[in-house]
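Anyone? Bumping this.
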Amino acid sequence: MPTERITAAFDRAKAEKRAVLVSYLMAGDPDLETSYQALCALRDNGADIIELGAPFTDPMADGPAIQRAGLRALAAKTKLTDVLALAARFRETDQTTPLIIMGYANPVHSMGYGAFAEAAHGAGVDGTIIVDLPPEEDEPLRDEYAKYGLSVIRLATPTTHEARMKKVAEGASGFLYFVSVTGVTGAGSADPTVIAGNIEMARRVSGLPVCVGFGVKTGAQAAEMAKIADGVVVGSAFVEHAEAAHESGDLARAPQGMGALAKELSKAIAGVAKP
Amino acid sequence: MDVRNTWDQWPDMNGRFGEFGGRYVAETLMPLILELEAEYRRAQKDPAFKAEMDDLWTHYVGRPSPLYFAERLTEHFGGAKIYFKRDELNHTGAHKINNCLGQVLLARRMGKTRIIAETGAGQHGVATATICARFGLECVVFMGETDVERQKPNVFRMRLLGAKIVPVSSGTGTLKDAMNEALRDWVTNVDNTFYCIGTVAGPHPYPELVRDFQSIIGKEAREQILEREGRLPDVIMACIGGGSNAIGLFHPFLEDESVRMIGVEAAGHGIETGEHAAALNGGRPGILHGNRTYLLQTDDGQILDAHSISAGLDYPGIGPEHAFLRDTGRAEYLSTTDKEALEAFQLCTKLEGIIPALEPSHALARVGEVAQELGKDGLIILNMCGRGDKDVFSVAKHLGVDM
């Protein structure tokens, strides 16, 4: 069952006394075949969980790197159904790596929450992060997800105070995605000492593993975050390899660059012993 | 559909107008919009807030705006009497300042020192920059690159007023992209920044509070027409981009069942061409910029670019309350092409000596047929929501005049 794949990924890391690496790539950037190769490269180089970005024309919470990635994916005519097909293709040969679709509400709403949940389950997707569906608005989607055991992964931020965290935790599953800075993706990195308390509170209130993202680009930063969180999310830094590949015309550079970065990050994270 | 006893009860506690509205924002913004709602509830109960608004409305904005009998336009069409609600006479030349004033006063109550806004035609940007100048607040206006180019006079006005203009090149460089960029700024600067949204869109409570601030238009118009004609109008009309001037006129009349409400969307080159901004007539429900409403979108849920000769109507969505009024049948929504709007712009200018903005020219283009349908006993109020000074350069260009 989908949520179990996520739980198993955290259990494996725990057994190895380390945090997990959550990596992000935009599906269809610059094309679907490259994304498939990149997915495999990420998995082969230590990514424990993979977020598959679904492109949207109006990505309000994303910085320039992921905005451009979305535009490249849209230019390649990537539809939500293509993102699901990519997940299904990966799932044919990989039954263990959790796949999370990350995107915005409208494409999912347009497909219909019921149809999307069924298709996502069929494609071997484990959960979603829908940036603009806060707890107040995601109940219709959660009802559909419950039929298939799909996880609703919620975002928490430095502005999420304890009372709000209770609301965020209600109905959330899989893990909690803690956005380390108030800002868009790819913005400056947070000071781990400043957010350590927030993460501890998020873990205590939600009872879920907490992964930290936004602004983490290097192994050194990932190691710092691994000290305070159960997982580290890296997005824009991976996406930049797809951009470089697209601009050079040598698409193989995307899986190569992403794989090398995943290796660096997973090694750095593994170097931080967790209790 | 569940229609409550009174239209005033919407939105509900979840910020919904029936199936529309809501709070579709990233978690970073949730505490902010909840805090804004709480502060707005306190302000609504505070006589000092209302007193300050009223004072500035009277002495700074110039309210009430007149209700003017457009005699020659009425004669021209030979039908119902046509009145203009003259919100183009407000300080800064449009209805936008009604709302900016309210929001900036709220921002001050909340201790925010930096105001951000998005703008299309530049009217909301100018109004926001004006109020910020008046109160000595930092003002940053996001404006699509395309709009910066076609609305140069307003860009210069905003700079004179001390605002910083941020041209937005993402997407197609129009209003929706400016709104995306303003939201990105807001999530980054949550502590000191207040987002002053220019229309009845965005997450709850914006559609409600912008409506409330703009409802001064309809409140005045209702009193004025009763005084002038001794009865309510048969039809009230306004153009619709996001829909703030229209909802401002409509809302105080919602309980008056005899009053028909007509919103006019921008049909651009024609709805059949796909190049238009008519979300109700050419779109379907979806989620964008914090609310569920009618949107121009592809089969796959990607947002389409709107097109209109009027930068102020060039938006692929519409305020959620309009979506609700349409689906309940309380209001009707027509559309006007670029070409028809240009003709109406010229007609009104020649017959009434009032140069309308291109936005209300869309409503003007439909007023003739409505007047003729009603006949000579009929009574229409049209909201003249902005003046056309800002548009003379682009109109000249469309008419092939080299200035």
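Late reply, but here is one note on the structure posted above: Residues 15-57+96-210 of chain B form a domain with the Rossmann fold fold (CATH 3.40.50.1100).
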